[in-house]
Amino acid sequence: MGPYEKKLNELVALTNFLDGTSGSRALKAIIKDLSGHGPISELIYTLDRQNFDRVIELLVEFRDRGRNESFSELHEQAAQRLK
User: Fold this and answer.
1) Contacts of 12 (CB under 8 A, 6+ apart)
2) Could you identify which of 10, 52, 61, 80 might form a hypothetical disulfide with 47, taking C-beta atoms 3.0 to 4.6 angstroms apart as the criterion?
3) Alpha carbons 57 and 38: distance in angstroms, whole number
4) How far is CA 28 from each of CA 41, 59, 60, 72, 75, rounded to the nearest angstrom?
5) What stretch of H or E contains 24?
6) pLDDT for 35-71, tens place per residue?
């Protein structure tokens, strides 16, 4: 078993352990999405490495700060600026 398969199997086991929780639903969606049909796989397969890393860094910062700071208005303003 390779390192990727081991990590995937660990996430599947964790997902099943958390069954019925919001964490389990999120992990299920991510695992299913990795097969190539959704926004995460689109992110992985269409962005170059530099932009992929930027998105991941943004998500990590949002995760770290988003529970204590309100970003809703900031995100709405950013969405409105999209063409």
Assistant:
1) 31
2) 52
3) 20
4) 14, 19, 20, 25, 25
5) helix 22-33
6) 877 788 888 888 899 999 999 999 898 888 877 877 7
Which letter, b or e, does each residue of 3-34 get, where b requires 16 or more Cβ atoms within 10 Å of its Cβ? Answer: eeeeeeeeeeeebeeeeeeeeeeebbeeeebe
CA nearest to 55, candidates 39, 34, 38: 39
d(CA 46, CA 64): 26
Q: Nearest CA to 59 among 20, 9, 51?
A: 51
24 touches 18 (CB < 8 A)? yes
Total-model pTM: 0.69
Sequence-distant (6+) residues with CB within 8 A of 17 are none
Measuring CA to CA, which residue among 54, 55, 11, 58 is closest to residue 33?
A: 11
